[in-house]
Amino acid sequence: MFLPTLTRTLVLLCLSLLAAPPAAPAAAFVPVPIEGRWDITMQMSGKEMPAWLEVRHSGFETLVGQFVGAAGSARPVAKVEFAAGQLRFAVPPQWEKGTADLRFEGRLQGDGLSGTMTFPDGATGTWTAVRAPSLRREREPAWGQPITLLDGTSLAGWKPLGENQWQAAGGVLRNAKSGGNLVTERTFTDFKLHLEFRYPAGSNSGVYLRGRYEVQIADSTSAEPTADELGSIYGFVAPSFRATRAGGWQTFDITLVGRRVTVVLNGKTLICDREIPGITGGALDSREGTPGPLLLQGDHGPVEYRNIVLTPGK
Question: What is this structure's pTM?
Answer without folding.
Answer: 0.89
